[in-house]
Amino acid sequence: MTFATVYCYPTSSRSNWLSDLGDYVGLKIVTKLKQETANYKEIFPLNKAPALITPSGYKLTETIAIFTYIVDKSNKKEFLGITEEEKANNLKWLSFMNSDFVGALYPSIYCLEGLTMEEHIARISRFLKFIENELKIKTTKYLSSDEILISDIFTVKTFDDVVGAGVDLSPYPEIVKYMDSVRPHPLMTRKQSFN
């Protein structure tokens, strides 16, 4: 039985792996492309993606809310963290990556805001330096826990977008090491399908 339908953009790390997430946590999620849904704005008046709708008609937008809702409805709630500190740090990293980091990255990828590529890379580099330092001083194996949490998956998928935008991550050895440590996770090797 289908748990939900998620509408997304095919290249967005904010949403293009949500059916894989569903599979991982044991929930069937159908994924559709926002741009191929004729009545999308009628269903979701803010015209934002990702967006989720359940068979009962419950609608949800906002990346972090959707991630959390999917995992909370599953038998793998520990993917959001176990202790209160892990849960809070997981949410912190989801929020930072989704807002600050992606907010700097996507204008770079799509050459928005009239900045040069060098200016975009400088903006992204500020955040990469911050993350590099955080990884150096962290007391856990991953960002928030000794286990991989959903924020780790989202972070590494977003770093893949950084590399795809032409940013060299080799000056950030802690980030490269961290990415390599998360890559074996099943969610990093799955391939999203769109219905």
TrEMBL record:
Residues 83-195 form the GST C-terminal domain. SUPFAM superfamilies: GST C-terminal domain-like, Thioredoxin-like. It comes from the Eukaryota. InterPro entries: EF-GSTs (IPR050802), Glutathione-S-Trfase_C-like (IPR010987), Glutathione-S-Trfase_C_sf (IPR036282), Glutathione_S-Trfase_N (IPR004045), Thioredoxin-like_sf (IPR036249). Gene3D superfamilies: 1.20.1050.10, Glutaredoxin. GO terms for cellular component: cytoplasm; nucleus. GO terms for biological process: translational elongation. PANTHER family: ELONGATION FACTOR 1-GAMMA (PTHR43986:SF1). This is GST C-terminal domain-containing protein. The lineage of its organism: Eukaryota, Fungi, Dikarya, Ascomycota, Saccharomycotina.
